[in-house]
Amino acid sequence: FPPSLPGDLISSPASSFDPEPLGPARLPRVALKANQVGQVVLYGVPIVSLVIDSIERLCLAQISNTLLKSYSYNEIHNRRVALGITCVQCTPVQLEILRRAGAMPISSRRCGMITKREAERLCKSFLGENSPPKLPDNFAFDVSHECAWGSRGSFIPARYNSSRAKCIKCAYCSMYFSPNKFIFHSHRTPESKYTQPDAANFNSWRRHLKLSERTPPQELAYAWEDVKAMFNGGSRKRTAPSSSHKSARSFPVIPV
Asked: d(Cα 119, Cα 117) in Å, to the nearest integer?
């Protein structure tokens, strides 16, 4: 694949990457104000947003009571944790703002807020088709974990066709593991430091397994999030990751 930007391999339409035609200059983006109230439409449902620490966040309780009302609290909580989504708790002042905006009932005592991207991921995991990102057949994510002595390997999406698929090739011993087993596989190296692993919770791999590149391109990070969302909940159909060979742009391919 020729070296270029890694954008077109994600499921966005190709037209979204076309240069914009010449026209009137864009107005400067207005800075978000603290506790500014807004509205974001998810799957056709308006959700109240609030600016917290310069980031627009959505009310998780409102999402749960509208878009995800068919699912239990435990289902939503477990899915959120599995996707690595962390809630930011409102202050009393912010909670009162949400009450007045109609996002929370008067009797509510707390509210967790998540970003728009996180809300989209959470809702898609329940309501969407959960189609895998389009990646070349020989593409692999360079991943690592720090459980026990830690390890590093290549996560191969083309092999990830079920929750127990052996799709990770260890960089040290070249053995293949499923994601939930790989976090319990480690190698002691001179620079490694022992970290006490969690209890035997195989579903926690999504929290512990991370891209080795700490600041990856946004498109690569989103593709990794989409891959982690697959087979997360026990009721998904087994879908082989699709491939794309037509695009001139591509992610870097890691030999495996």
From this structure: 5
The identity of residue 113, as a single letter, is M
In this structure, of 33-47, 83-97, 220-234, the range with the lowest mean pLDDT score is: 220-234
The residues pairing with 170 across neighbouring beta strands, listed in sequence order, are: 153
* Nearest-angstrom CA–CA distance, 189 and 154: 18
Q: Look at residue 29 in the predicted model and tell me its pLDDT.
A: 52
Q: What is the pLDDT of residue 132?
A: 66
> Mapping DSSP to helix (H, G, I), strand (E, B) and coil, where does residue 124 land?
helix
Helix (H) or strand (E) holding 152: strand 151-155
Strand intervals (E) in the chain? 37-42, 45-52, 55-59, 88-89, 112-115, 141-145, 151-155, 168-170, 176-177, 210-211
**Chain segment 225-235, per-residue pLDDT in tens:** 888 878 875 44
Q: Where are the domains of the chain?
A: 36-127, 141-230
Taking the C-alpha atoms of residue 256 and residue 92, their distance in angstroms, rounded to an integer, is 52
Q: Closest Cα to residue 87, out of 67, 115, 108, 64?
A: 115
Topology of domain 141-230 in CATH is SAND domain (3.10.390)
Structural fold of domain 36-127: Mlu1-box Binding Protein; DNA-binding Domain (3.10.260)
CA distance 256 to 48: 45
95-125 pLDDT per residue, tens: 999 999 999 888 888 899 999 999 998 998 8
